[in-house]
Automatic annotation (TrEMBL):
Transmembrane residue ranges: 68-88, 95-116, 122-140, 161-181
UniProt keyword list: Membrane, Transmembrane, Transmembrane helix
SUPFAM superfamilies: E set domains, Oxidoreductase molybdopterin-binding domain
GO molecular function: heme binding; molybdopterin cofactor binding; sulfite oxidase activity
Superkingdom of source: Bacteria
Alphabetized InterPro entries for the sequence: Ig_E-set, OxRdtase_Mopterin-bd_dom, OxRdtase_Mopterin-bd_sf
Ranges of residues in domain Oxidoreductase molybdopterin-binding: 239-392
GO biological process: sulfur compound metabolic process
Name of this protein: Molybdopterin-dependent oxidoreductase
PANTHER family given in the database record: SULFITE OXIDASE, MITOCHONDRIAL, SULFITE REDUCTASE
Record organism: Lacisediminihabitans changchengi
Amino acid sequence: MTTRTARWLAAFTGVVSAIVVLGAAELGSLVTGNAGSPIFAVGSLVIDLAPPGAKDLMISLFGTGDKAALLTLLAVIIVAGSAGAGILELRRPPFGVVVFGVASLIALIAVLTRAGSTGSDGVPTIIGAVVGVVVLRVAIQRLGVWRSAPVDGAASSTARRRFLTITVVAGAAALVAGTGVRIKNSGATVITEARKALKLPAPAVASPPVPSGAQLDVSGISPYITPNKDFYRIDTALVVPNVDADTWTLKVTGMVENEVEITFAELLKKPLTEHILTLTCVSNDVGGDLIGNARWLGWPIRELLALAVPKAGADMVLSTSIDGFTAGTPLDVLQDEQTDALLAVGMNGTPLPVEHGYPVRMVVPGLYGYVSATKWVVELEVTQFSKAQGYWTPRGWDAMGPVKLESRIDTPKDGARLSSGTTIPIAGVAWCQHIGVKQVELRVDDGPWNLATLADSVSADTWRQWVYQWEPTTGDHTFTVRATDANGQVQTQKYAPPAPNGAEGWASIGVTVG
Ligand SMILES: Nc1nc2c(c(=O)[nH]1)N[C@H]1C(S)=C(S)[C@@H](COP(=O)(O)O)O[C@H]1N2
Ligand SMILES: [Mo]
């Protein structure tokens, strides 16, 4: 056997051993009864530890696909690292084993530092590491025997068979069993079934029907209500938390007279309110699509806070998700009689989709999601801004996140080629949650500002559609949009990036009429 062949086989052995580590860890989690999967834990740790700049880069590079990109990157690192460790184990034992040990230790730390983890969550990773290291050592030893056996002799074929048996059998077994258990551990099917079976109660306070004039008849415009399947999704969760509604509770703790705990069944018995509300991400750049409008069903958070009775001096509610994400929301916003800040259970007539926070999330009009819209929420700690911080604040985003006045062109699309002759509708949406939009203007090239026609306003808390009918002329054209809020404030031209408290500036697109 040539040295090259031996190295390739050693690299292969390393990769197989890594698969064995991960597969055995999944099997281990079956025995210990918890779902501590090392690879997702490492991925989540990377997300949490990433410096703010790196995270912005990820978001701009991969958009909402950054999770798939992160997992792919991790997979590449694991394959390259384990292949290297296999070669190292062949050439300088036991350094390959040492590499596996160090990597497993990192995974162990990641698992143990996840939100809500207990000591036993580390057991699967330890089992995985031990089994993987045994496979690595034994397989590399057998490779050594095969390599030093005389070529073409009986000893060589026995040694080859022994090497292939351990690598192929262990690798295939780990792959099959690991994947199977992973699917079972994720609990996805059980939760999906429970969600499907759930019948939400009718609202005690229904939102008035949406007037037909709220929806303009323009193709390509964002529909007034965003269907759940098209609603943007942003969160730090590498795997969507699967929360069992039967055991879910929400605790109100901290600076309160009475600590309160409520179950899902109790929550559903409360008089629920329906509220249409536009949710926006602070990371939404000018013209971006991290925004949606939905009909939410839930119990006003102020009612729950009233049961707990916040103490004097408290000014923040730190809401915590089951996966450890936190948001700091001003207490007075949540207590406001006029603001329907909800503990939402329904979205557009269905239970919350799992990726949008099933069974319960917060939605608060007028605030960006990162300081208000905690999904899979399990605790509300009444506290103070001087004592506590939400997840994104130490990562370079402001503690306060009121939504800014913005507008966007939905149609035509940037770079579109249009034909002249017929009037072309230029249309989109504008929003200024909590205040409302009273005017939208569209500018063609460097021309004057033209008043757009506004769709009916449903409430200050939701976006408003607009359209401007344009008589096209041939050539390249640029459209720019700006909105004015109900207080008369005109959207500022000066561009500001999303960090640290939301993007500002005029959205514009270019088209060619030919
Ligand atoms: N548990 C949890 N809730 C979360 C987040 C998160 O990372 N984890 N992100 C917040 C942010 S930044 C936004 S913009 C909204 C997005 O809600 P959506 O995914 O339902 O659109 O959820 C908020 N709630
Ligand atoms: Mo966000």
